[in-house]
Amino acid sequence: MDIEEMLLDLKKKIESKLPNDTTISTVEFEGPQLVVYTEEPRKFADNGNIIRTLAKDLRTRIVVRPDPKVLVPPEESMDKIGNIVPEEAATSNYHFDPDVGEVIIEAEKPGLVIGKQGDTLREITKEIGWTPKVVRTPPIKSRTVKNIREFMRNNHKERKDILKSVGRQIHRETTTKDQWVRITSLGGCKEVGRSCFILSTPESRVMIDCGVNIGSDENMTPYLYVPEAYPLSQLDAVILTHAHLDHSGFIPLLYKYGYQGPVYCTLPTRDLSALLQLDYIDVAGKEGRIVPYESSQVREALKHTITLDFEEVTDIAPDIKLTFHNSGHILGSAIAHFHIGDGLHNVVFTGDYKYGSTRLFDPAVNKFPRVETVVTESTYGSSNAVQPTLKDAEKHLQQVIINTLQKDGIVLIPAFAVGRSQEVMIVLEDAIRKGLIDDVPIYLDGMIWEATAIHATYPEYLNNELRKSIFQKGQNPFLSDSFKPVDSNELRQKIIDEPHPCVILATAGMMNAGPILEYFKAFASNENNTLVFVGYQADGTLGRRIQKGWKEIPMSSSVNGGTQTINVNMNVEVVDGFSGHSDRKQLMDFVKKMKPRPERVYTEHGEEKFCIDLASSIYKKNKIETRALTNLETIRLV
Amino acid sequence: MDIEEMLLDLKKKIESKLPNDTTISTVEFEGPQLVVYTEEPRKFADNGNIIRTLAKDLRTRIVVRPDPKVLVPPEESMDKIGNIVPEEAATSNYHFDPDVGEVIIEAEKPGLVIGKQGDTLREITKEIGWTPKVVRTPPIKSRTVKNIREFMRNNHKERKDILKSVGRQIHRETTTKDQWVRITSLGGCKEVGRSCFILSTPESRVMIDCGVNIGSDENMTPYLYVPEAYPLSQLDAVILTHAHLDHSGFIPLLYKYGYQGPVYCTLPTRDLSALLQLDYIDVAGKEGRIVPYESSQVREALKHTITLDFEEVTDIAPDIKLTFHNSGHILGSAIAHFHIGDGLHNVVFTGDYKYGSTRLFDPAVNKFPRVETVVTESTYGSSNAVQPTLKDAEKHLQQVIINTLQKDGIVLIPAFAVGRSQEVMIVLEDAIRKGLIDDVPIYLDGMIWEATAIHATYPEYLNNELRKSIFQKGQNPFLSDSFKPVDSNELRQKIIDEPHPCVILATAGMMNAGPILEYFKAFASNENNTLVFVGYQADGTLGRRIQKGWKEIPMSSSVNGGTQTINVNMNVEVVDGFSGHSDRKQLMDFVKKMKPRPERVYTEHGEEKFCIDLASSIYKKNKIETRALTNLETIRLV
Ligand SMILES: [Zn+2]
Ligand SMILES: [Zn+2]
Ligand SMILES: [Zn+2]
Ligand SMILES: [Zn+2]
Ligand SMILES: [Zn+2]
Question: Looking at the domain A181-384+581-636, which fold is it?
Answer without folding.
Answer: Metallo-beta-lactamase; Chain A (3.60.15)
